[in-house]
Write the structure tokens for this entry.
Amino acid sequence: MNQDQLKQMVGEAARDEVLKLAPGQVLGIGTGSTANCFIDALAPHKDHFSGTVSSSNFTTERLLKHGFKVLNPNDVAGLPAYVDGADEIDPAGHMIKGGGGALTREKIIASMANQFICICDSSKQVPVLGHFALPVEIIPLAQGVVTRELEKFGGRVSLRLAKAAQEPFVTDNGAWILDVAGLKISDPKSMESQINQIAGVITVGLFAKEKANILLVSNVAGVERVIF
Ligand code: 5RP
């Protein structure tokens, strides 16, 4: 079984999970290849929900193509659940996210939801976060000062570049991303709040406050459901 099949399997498990929610509510939907599998699996059941809120322009495009209703988060009071992938998840449900660059909107929508349902294959499970470079979305003019502050945590900081171009990757918010490699994040809550306090940081891709409540994780044996 390859990784695409594992993603598809967990996408289908997430579909079954959200169909247990009472109908007529709004669902939060994340970004990335695993979230895409979930969207595709949920499409035939889209009428179970009155609408969705989306964490990125890519996801919005895919949802609209399938005929989902996509709502402005400002018009939605709360969400029963937010379903999204992760770049890494630790045994307590803390995550690194933002590999796809959508971390800020992902965190906003996660904060609106009663439950974060994380979906991934088992390659994303780690004992300690930090092998995957930590994304930090920043105001472009703060690149220099934020880089120096982030280096104090002991990692190697690099500006994310757009694919096939020597230009900065620009997020849906018109901002840039610094990736911090080589960290060993033993206290994700503390690091999240310390990085959030650096002037010029929009969002750090550490999801400790907004950690997963449920993890659906696929491996060759099937999909495991973990509750945190
Ligand atoms: C995007 C994200 C994604 O959830 C994360 O990168 C996982 O993506 P994939 O499912 O493609 O491995 O945080 O900003």
Observations:
- The mean pLDDT is 97.
- DSSP finds six helices and 13 strands in the chain.
- Helices lie at 3-18, 33-42, 57-66, 103-112, 143-151, 188-196.
